[in-house]
Q: What sequence folds into this?
């Protein structure tokens, strides 16, 4: 498995790796396994969603009407766009186009912020009418005793997803700073590559959240 | 291989006996430990923490047993008793046994057995230790604030309504979950990407296979525990109601989530123990392991089946009859890969030259105790029997036979097996044997009576009991004292061995064949000063030992690069 | 650096994937407004979501050109998610009586 090439003297290769290739492959596999844990982390909430939806289909049909399909759809497009731009950032790194890495990272961060702003308006409009999670729920527009449960699940799922978006923004800002310092080039761009994988997973989860939460008609 | 072997200039590298320079004195000072990225030092720090928490959990257990001396109050009140058994369970499970073998012995030996210089992500490895310590602080905080009285399972709805420090305790467990996940990621990537030249999957030591299977469980199951505890914390802080029947939630769903992690977690605890037993039995029988692939793959099979059977903890919870029947049926399948392992270990000993050194004695005790634990587990998996035995001392005895008789005895086997390699010192063999016998007697005196009490209907977690059980309870309590004495003896002779000068260990005191024994005792800072090349299976005892010390010059990196990288990682 | 032959994903694949994702999103929303009878509305929505997810994983995350082990990791996570939900449903769908107060 580990090949026996002699050293390249590349400064980014840590001492315990044989070469840059082994280090890159390891980081990438490590990130994928981390994504596995993310899938199962969100998976728990999806299980709660499915169990309660199977028990109370009517509740889910009634409650989802309160959510703005338009805002959800725009956010879906925004996240897809950000997935594209971070993939372009990786490509720019592979092709050694320093200026483009920064440019695409910046656009990705911008789109992520747009997502959060839209989410903010969604949340506040719900809070305003008393749609809050669990015990705090006071809204009377849904004629079902279990309405609070739907919104508990909604807030847990989108909230956890939102935290992932915020973490993603933090990492990308850090990447942007490092890129400006010239840390990445075509022979070393592992952090950009694995951050992109993380960001695509955030997109992936939203792709399921959108129809499951917003589009129950 | 043979053609390229010449080109690569493979030769034998003799082992330096009792080296002057090794990982323990490569750097000095407290900082060189706390900020080390050396997997061996991190393994030792884990070992120290684990022993500390084993001591804490053990003292709590002794207190519990003492309280049960009288049918009513002996020396603590019922509320305190509830908190003490909860803490005993939580400390032993989350702070001791889950990290025990993988994070301590696994960290130390996995890279060495692979012929690697370190795990794939040394800094994450250090981070994992710090996260573990941080989580442990939360646990200590909750102990200081009155502890928790829910039992280690934190079942809702009681855990959402009790006034005790549930949030800090579950936050601690939540945080420690990340440490477990990081260890798992590190091990999987290391096994995939860092194996020495020639070390194919079929030449991996079985301890590696068991750690690999464990890492897969850690990665797949731990995130579900994280989300469960997060929901529990949200339940207590915001009242989200997902587990609260008053708001339309379902407390049994909590149990599903909890056991989706915690049943596989049982295999996080026991599968690494299987790995140690495979190493020890083969080494001390001087014989190729019987059924290498069956043992290796049965670890993976246990990991997989372990995910299908969690509901056997919930037979009386009110889950549907259909689920109950299916869970009971699937539970029996766990017995198959486990039985395969037991058979293979016994077959390995058959006609071997068995050397009754301390690790081997512990391994044999493991076979006896774990078999009892396993068979009673099958009993408990049977639906009709379970309804009678559910939440009785029978269950307590069963999982102590598996977890303590199994994992702790295997852990002791592993510590005695690798002690000379880790420390470069040999312990006193006579006292080690005495202690093993004391522990074995103490263990059985403690827990055999609990099977009897349980089958007669003594419920677990009860503060008081009817007088007919007093003799059995007192026997069990006396047994716990014998166990305590056994552990004290172990602690004393191991500590003495560290500080005495006369008992230096050779690099390979047991004549083993796996790669970790081909380094010096204690190992060099970077494990090997060459790139090891593996030609044989680690259990090929019929081949000369010189053929296991092959390697090529250099270690894939220039010395200049190495010193440069070390400087920069010191800063970080 | 001759050994750095990481696959550079062709621009047309990235743009094509993004375009396909937008189109599928529009179809998803449109399908929700059509009166598809239950449970086929859910099946349609989930099929479209899985289609989109496959595009993201295959193209954006580069699994088509990547080492197979990474694809396996993703598939394993999905398999174990299905085990979790599948077995849980064996309980929740077949209970005599749920636990909530309003039933």
A:
């Amino acid at each position: 498995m580990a090949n026996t090439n002699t050293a390249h003297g590349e400064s980014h290769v840590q001492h315990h790796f044989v070469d840059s290739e082994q280090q890159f492959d390891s980081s990438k596999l490590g990130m994928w396994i981390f994504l596995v844990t993310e899938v199962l982390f969100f998976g728990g909430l999806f299980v709660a969603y499915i169990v309660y939806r199977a028990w109370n289909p009517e509740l889910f049909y009634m409650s989802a009407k309160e959510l703005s399909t338009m805002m959800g759809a725009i956010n879906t497009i925004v996240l897809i766009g950000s997935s594209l731009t971070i993939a372009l950032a990786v490509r720019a790194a592979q092709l050694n186009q320093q200026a483009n890495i920064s440019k695409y990272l910046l656009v990705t961060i911008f789109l992520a912020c747009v997502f959060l702003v839209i989410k903010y308006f969604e949340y506040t409009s719900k809070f305003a009418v008393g749609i809050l999670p669990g015990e705090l729920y006071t809204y009377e527009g849904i004629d079902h005793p279990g309405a609070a449960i739907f919104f508990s699940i909604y807030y847990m799922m989108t909230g956890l997803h939102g935290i992932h978006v915020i973490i993603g923004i933090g990492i990308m800002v850090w990447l942007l700073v490092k890129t400006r310092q010239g840390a990445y080039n075509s022979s070393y761009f592992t952090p950009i590559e694995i951050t992109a994988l993380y960001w695509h997973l955030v997109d992936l989860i939203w792709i399921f959240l959108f129809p499951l939460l917003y589009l129950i008609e | 291989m043979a053609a390229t072997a010449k080109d690569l200039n493979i030769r034998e590298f003799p082992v330096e006996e009792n080296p002057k320079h090794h990982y323990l004195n490569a750097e000095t000072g407290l900082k060189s430990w706390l900020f080390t990225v050396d997997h061996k030092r991190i393994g030792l720090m884990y070992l120290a923490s684990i022993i500390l928490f084993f001591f804490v959990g053990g003292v709590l257990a002794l207190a519990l047993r003492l309280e049960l001396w009288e049918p009513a109050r002996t020396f603590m009140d019922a509320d305190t008793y509830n908190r003490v058994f909860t803490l005993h369970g939580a400390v032993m499970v989350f702070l001791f046994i889950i990290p025990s073998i993988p994070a301590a012995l696994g960290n130390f030996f996995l890279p060495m057995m692979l012929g690697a210089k370190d795990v794939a992500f040394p800094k994450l490895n250090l981070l994992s230790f710090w996260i573990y310590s941080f989580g442990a602080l939360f646990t200590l905080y909750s102990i200081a604030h009155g502890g928790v009285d829910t039992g280690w399972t934190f079942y809702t709805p009681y855990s959402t309504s009790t006034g005790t420090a549930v949030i800090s305790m579950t936050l601690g467990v939540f945080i420690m979950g990340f440490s477990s996940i990081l260890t798992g990621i590190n091990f999987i990537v290391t096994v995939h990407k860092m194996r020495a030249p020639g070390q194919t999957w079929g030449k991996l030591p079985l301890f590696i296979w068991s750690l690999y299977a464990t890492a897969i469980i850690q990665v797949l199951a731990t995130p579900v525990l994280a989300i469960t505890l997060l929901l529990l914390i949200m339940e207590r802080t915001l009242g989200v109601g997902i587990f609260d029947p008053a708001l339309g939630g379902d407390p049994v769903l909590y149990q599903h989530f909890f056991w989706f992690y915690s049943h596989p977690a049982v295999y996080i605890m026991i599968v690494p123990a299987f790995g140690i037993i495979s190493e020890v039995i083969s080494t001390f029988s001087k014989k190729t392991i019987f059924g290498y692939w069956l043992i290796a793959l049965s670890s993976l099979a246990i990991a997989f089946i372990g995910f299908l059977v969690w509901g056997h903890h919930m037979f009386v919870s009110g889950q549907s009859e259909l689920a109950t029947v299916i869970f009971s049926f699937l539970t029996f399948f766990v017995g198959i890969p486990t039985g395969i392992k037991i058979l293979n270990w016994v077959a390995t000993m058959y006609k071997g030259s068995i050397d009754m050194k301390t690790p081997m004695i512990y391994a044999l005790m493991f076979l006896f105790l774990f078999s009892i634990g396993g068979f009673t587990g099958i009993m408990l998996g049977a639906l009709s029997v379970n309804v009678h035995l559910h939440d009785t001392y029978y269950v307590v005895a069963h999982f102590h036979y598996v977890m303590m008789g199994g994992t702790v005895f295997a852990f002791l086997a592993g510590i005695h097996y690798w002690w000379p390699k880790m420390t470069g010192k040999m312990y006193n063999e006579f006292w080690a044997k005495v202690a093993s016998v004391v522990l074995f007697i103490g263990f059985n005196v403690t827990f055999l009576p609990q099977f009897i009490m349980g089958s007669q209907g003594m419920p677990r977690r009860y503060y008081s009991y009817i007088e007919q059980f007093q003799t059995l309870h007192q026997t069990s309590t006396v047994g716990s004292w014998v166990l305590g004495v056994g552990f004290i003896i172990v602690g004393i002779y191991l500590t003495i061995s560290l500080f005495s000068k006369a008992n230096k260990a050779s690099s390979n005191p047991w004549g083993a064949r796996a790669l970790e024994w081909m380094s010096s005792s204690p190992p060099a800072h970077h494990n090997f000063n060459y790139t090891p090349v593996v030609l044989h299976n680690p259990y090929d005892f019929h081949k000369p030992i010189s053929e296991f010390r092959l390697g090529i010059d250099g270690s894939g990196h220039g010395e200049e690069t190495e010193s440069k990288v070390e400087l920069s990682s010191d800063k970080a | 650096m001759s050994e750095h032959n990481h696959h550079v994903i062709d621009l047309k694949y990235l743009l094509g994937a993004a375009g396909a994702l937008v189109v599928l999103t529009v179809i998803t929303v449109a399908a929700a407004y059509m009166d598809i009878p239950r449970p086929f509305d859910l099946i349609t929505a989930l099929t479209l979501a899985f289609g989109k997810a496959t595009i993201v994983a295959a193209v954006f995350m580069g699994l088509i050109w990547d080492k197979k082990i990474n694809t396996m990791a993703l598939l394993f996570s999905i398999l174990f998610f299905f085990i979790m939900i599948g077995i849980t449903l064996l309980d929740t769908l077949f209970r005599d009586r749920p636990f909530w107060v309003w039933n």
Observations:
- Chain C has a mean pLDDT of 88.
- The radius of gyration of chain C is 20 Å.
- Chain C touches chain B at residues 69, 76-77, 80, 83-84, 87-88, 90-96, 98-102 (CB under 8 Å).
